[in-house]
Give the backbone structure.
Amino acid sequence: MKLKTHRGAAKRFRVTRNGKVLHRKATGNHMLRKKSGSRRRRIEGMSEVRSTSDATTIRRLLGE
């Protein structure tokens, strides 16, 4: 039987063509007025999951 994709993980992570696991950076949703523009730009976008064991677990949850 095929495994289902873990929907919570699917909403939080994505895997690139090269196999890197990306996640969204934290602290970018609220209280942005007090943060400087450079800090806001640094927060936006995606970041790579550095831990290889975590990345392996996430790939398994995503069905990769």
Notes: The first strand starts at residue 13 and ends at 15. Strands lie at 13-15, 21-24, 46-48. The two ends are 15 Å apart (CA to CA). Residues 35 and 50 are 26 Å apart (CA to CA).
